[in-house]
Amino acid sequence: MFPVCVTCGVQYGEAVQACPVCEDPRQYVPVTGQLWTTLEALRETHANDVRDEAGLTGIGTTPQFAIGQRALLVPYGTSNLLWDCITLLDDATAEEVEGRGGLALIAISHPHYYSAMVEWAHRFGCPVLLHAADREWVMRPDPAIELWDGETRALDHGLTLIRGGGHFPGGTMLHRPEGDLLSGDIVQVIPDRTHVSFMWSYPNLVPLPESEVRRLAATLEPFAFERIFGAWWGTVIPAGGKAIMERSAQRYISALRGEMPGRG
Questions:
Q1: Spatial contact of 228 and 241, defined as CB atoms under 8 Å apart
Q2: What tens digit of pLDDT does each residue of 213-247 get?
């Protein structure tokens, strides 16, 4: 039974005393201390909810576990690409996914969502695509993990992985030709849907420097998109996503310079 960190949900390939993912300043160790579980124990207390998320299929765990992100099934020919990942995988979830075409690929935005990616890869017989800049955060090495390098990686069916960096050096987004940007935490969908935001550490409220925000915005400049899918249920910007991202980058930079934003 492979240990799973209760705080971040990342599964380890061997027993460890501490979770490097949570000890990193982008995450945190709770004041109550480090706790561990297993996938087998999690199946006894939790289940997955599979439901529509703005036209895609979302998969999220209830009650909420660890960081609480939901994964997305993205059509990939006659199969699917799983965008980001969650820890819990049980028979009911696997049957739901198989009934929708199974998985051809898994792609993950950043290490906080690596979760039980190897379990998912083994169950569906597919590779996991991770950016090579984040290789040090792979806590359960496995041949199913495929590291890619560079700024973009073209996939089949018009999909593109984009290295945005920022939150993590290999922070990745997924672009769909239908006009969607699946951004994980790299571009953060916030409660005010007229803007997005960017951070180095979200729980610890550490901002990105101006140079990183400018670079991220420049990286996305060649791509057209209307919708932005964030990492949690309901975090979807339904229209105008690229203009919102560009406006938000300027607002963020102005705030870093001490020019506090108004209502626009």
A1: yes
A2: 999 999 999 999 999 999 999 999 999 999 999 99
- For residue 81, what are the CA distances in angstroms to 33, 57, 88, 128, 129? 35, 11, 17, 10, 10
* 3-state secondary structure labels for all residues of the chain: CCEEECCCCCECCCCCCCCHHHHCCCCCCCCCCCCEEEHHHHHHHCEEEEEEECCEEEEEEECCCCCCCCEEEEEECCEEEEECCCCCCCHHHHHHHHHCCCCCEEECCCHHHCCCHHHHHHHHCCCEEEEHHHHHHCCCCCCCEEEECCCEEECHHHCEEEECCCCCCCCEEEEECCCEEECCCCCEECCCCCCEECEEECCCCEECCHHHHHHHHHHHCCCCCCEEECCCCCCEECCCHHHHHHHHHHHHHHHHCCCCCCCC
Rounded CA-CA distance 180/228 in Å is: 6
Enter the pTM of the model.
0.97
In angstroms, the CA 48 to CA 25 distance is: 29
Residues 81-112: pLDDT tens digits? Answer: 999 999 999 999 999 999 999 999 999 999 99
Q: In whole angstroms, what is the distance from residue 177 CA to residue 46 CA?
A: 35
**CATH architecture of the domain formed by 3-256:** 4-Layer Sandwich (3.60)
Q: Residue 182 half-sphere exposure, CB side, CA atoms within 13 Å? A: 32
